[in-house]
Design a protein that fits this description.
Elements lengths: L31 E4 L1 H5 L9 H14 L3 E5 L5 H12 L8 E7 L2 H10 L5 E9 L2 H8 L3 H20 L5 E9 L6 H15 L7 E7 L6 H14 L6 E7 L6 H10 L4 E4 L13 H9 L12 H12 L16 E2 L2 H13 L23 E2 L12 H9 L5 H18 L5 H13 L6 E10 L2 E10 L2 E9 L2 H9 L7 E9 L11 E8 L7 E7 L2 H16 L11
Parallel strand pairs: 1-2, 1-8, 2-3, 3-4, 4-5, 5-6, 6-7, 7-8, 9-10
Antiparallel strand pairs: 11-12, 12-13, 14-15, 15-16
The structure holds zinc ion.
Zinc ion (ZN) binds next to loops.
GO molecular function: 2-isopropylmalate synthase activity; acetyl-CoA C-acetyltransferase activity; magnesium ion binding
Subunit structure: Homodimer.
EC number: 2.3.3.13
Amino acid sequence: MLQHPETKYRPFPPIDLAERQWPNRTITRPPIWMSTDLRDGNQSLFEPMNGERKMRMFRMLCEIGFKEIEVAFPSASATDFNFVRELIEGGHIPEDVTIEVLTQAREHLIRRTMESLKGARHAIVHVYNPISKTFRDVVFGMSKAEVVDMAVSAVKLIKQLAAEQPETQWVLEYSPETFTAAELDFSLEICDAVTAAWGATPHNKVILNLPTTVEVATPNVYADQIEWMHRHLARRDSVILSLHTHNDRGTAVASTELALMAGADRVEGCLFGNGERTGNVDIVTLAMNLYTQGIAPGLDFSDINAVARTVEYCNQLPIHPRHPYVGDLVFTAFSGSHQDAIRKGFAAQQPGALWNVPYLPVDPKDVGRSYDSVIRVNSQSGKGGIAYLLETEYGVVMPRRLQVEFSGVVQQHADSHGGEISAAEIWQLFAATYLDTVEPVRYREHHLFEHGAAQGIRLNVEIHGTSHLLVGEGNGPIDAAVHALQGIGIKVQVRSYEERSMGASGEAGDARACAFMEIASPENNADCYGVGLDANIVTASIRALVSGVNRAGLSLRDGLRAA
Ligand SMILES: [Zn+2]
């Protein structure tokens, strides 16, 4: 880094805004939310989502409660174009959900984009062009007038093509890309020109989306820019003022919140802040920030783990363990004094009263989580760390969420037995908790068979001394076993699955496979782990499933329960 960064970088100039109003405002209602997970996020993945992943994400976004979803950049790829067609032709779009698509302001791309939307009930066409001085001078070599003309011509073409597809209710969205780095009066000029060209009215509003394409200043500067536009826009009553923030300076959430105070109506973002570079603003954090101020956000994260696992599956990117509201460690306390304060807080918390528990800004139950007090397994405890001991002495490398879960088990043991716990005791506890579970279901053996394209399984289990043969089919051995277990009334979903080969050391014996299965059941809301060890990896995974089922304490169907 430079000794004198002022020779290379310059501060962003303040906005000249007399008597700014936003610092005195509070947010009292949620904005219109728009998910751009299938576009902005999808643009920057190591491996872009395929059709199956896109559909899974789309369904979940609908379930969460999004009413506007940007589903694709149809002119950019066949996958995106076909996905829009599949949504429309397959009837996958709920009546109250409007899909949105993005296009550059170029004629052939606009034509292809409009073609992708044939037959849609409602659609938002989102067109953009970059407007800042750097883009005008360096990238395109265009004058201001040419840049305005590019936007206006695009809008007129969309208007004409929309008129040719009258079965669709059309909404126009325009983004002056690089808004934060552009001259405000020029942003105003181009936005007003677009509003006029579209013929926006209070009954046919245009969405003007003002992005921090790249964050270039502190959040108060963005709020000033938004308030300035909010005050100066022509036909403000015919405009939905929208925000699209990125996180280059780490302040996307703050920028969005201040800009909402400054007069914006709508927010675009991604779940858990996925998106290009440092990501788009995290809509989950924004929504939960509203919720913890007592404002219903209109989005439902009652089962935040399910949302997180689906997002990780679709994006193939992990969520940071310290991510607000969702990270594996955010409802976990390692420190004794914090644990003590939280325990007292829970004890004093009356049902129905305002939330008042130290260190927990939200009741973990509200997002389907539980509070975990965890014995010190961090580096400070050195060799005493549970995960460390199991890994070095027994070759078991636990997934992080299992570490948190098992720490609770060890903590309980420590509380009731006192004193220091040895590695051997931890292993015994681990084996008793996960490996040797036989109640109510004892695994005996299984056989796999093929049935057409499906994988079949004959699973032999013992329940209260009686053996049962369960048969199931699925797209793989685990899926087949999950279906087989339905025969005894057990309904579970596999949330995550990992397998590892084990070191040859210790009790675990010869090099063996270890399978970790995180399961969820509709019966009890909490997720829990099962673990299986075996020489054979498939057998290890079936054992892990049975272990998880026993751990979850699920009830069997009538007639199988213990006398
Ligand atoms: Zn973006």
